[in-house]
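Hello Y.,

Per our agreement to keep a running log of every chain we model this quarter, I'm adding this entry. I've kept the format consistent with earlier entries: sequence first, then predicted structure.
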Amino acid sequence: MWQGLVTGLLMIATPAMFDKMGWAGVASATPSILLWGGVMFFATCIGYQFGFASHAAEVAAAVMTGAAVRTCTCRRGTGARLHLLAYLWCQG
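Predicted structure for the entry above:
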């Protein structure tokens, strides 16, 4: 959906962009957009690794060792058979 909206807006704005920035300005916009988008993407990835990955590793280790099911005493329904969901439910 967003791709279509952005494409439509750029199709409408392209003549004004060429008038204001010229061919070189419009052509240099793509590398600039890719540079800033890449910086934001990788900064988010690095932030995720420092902020959330340690907890994800703990959950994965608990699931692999079976500790998630042994520590959970609030078994309700068939959802407890999925180790990860049972662990997260009992922890939350």
